[in-house]
Amino acid sequence: MKTSSYSRLPKISVSKPASDTLLWMATVRRWSGVAFDKMAQWQDRATQRRQLSELDDRQLADIGVTRIDAGHESAKPFWKA
Questions:
Q1: Residue 72 pLDDT more than 80?
Q2: pLDDT of residue 20
Q3: How many other CB atoms sit within 10 Å of the CB of residue 31?
Q4: Is residue 38 a contact partner of residue 30, using CB atoms and an 8 Å limit?
Q5: How far is Cα of residue 24 from the mean position of the Cα atoms in its chain?
Q6: Residue 25: phi, psi to the nearest 5?
Q7: What are the residue boundaries of the structural domains of the chain, listed by start?
Q8: Euclidean distance between the first and final Cα of the chain, in Å?
Q9: In which band, very low, low, confident or very high, does the pLDDT at 21 lie, cut at 50, 70 and 90?
Q10: How far is residue 9 CA from its own chain's centroid?
Q11: How far apart are alpha carbons 70 and 57 in whole angstroms?
């Protein structure tokens, strides 16, 4: 019975090339930046809506917004535009 010549070949360990690791790191950095930007946008929106709800009728009239419109806008959750 013949034995396979493949069993006599040295084992070769295959590792990821450095370029794959760098690509993965760049992707993680990009997405973490996107996530940070989105959270900052949500924080700004929540702050603006809270401040809008605190304006009095005179201040709302100055910016041309009715009390009803201000109430609707400030009642929206921070993630909705």
A1: yes
A2: 84
A3: 10
A4: no
A5: 17
A6: -65, -40
A7: 30-81
A8: 74
A9: confident
A10: 48
A11: 10
Three-class SS string for the chain? Answer: CCCCHHHHCCCCCCCCCHHHHHHHHHHHHHHHHHHHHHHHHHHHHHHHHHHHHCCCHHHHHHHCCCHHHHHHHHHCCCCCC
| Paired tokens of 41 | 């946008």
Other C-beta atoms closer than 10 Å to the C-beta of 4 total 7
φ and ψ of 48, to 5 deg: -60, -40
Residue 32 has pLDDT above 60, yes or no: yes
43 CB burial (10 A radius; 0-12, 13-18, 19+):
exposed
The token duo for 55 is 């304006």
Residue type, 47: T
Average pLDDT value over all residues in the chain: 87
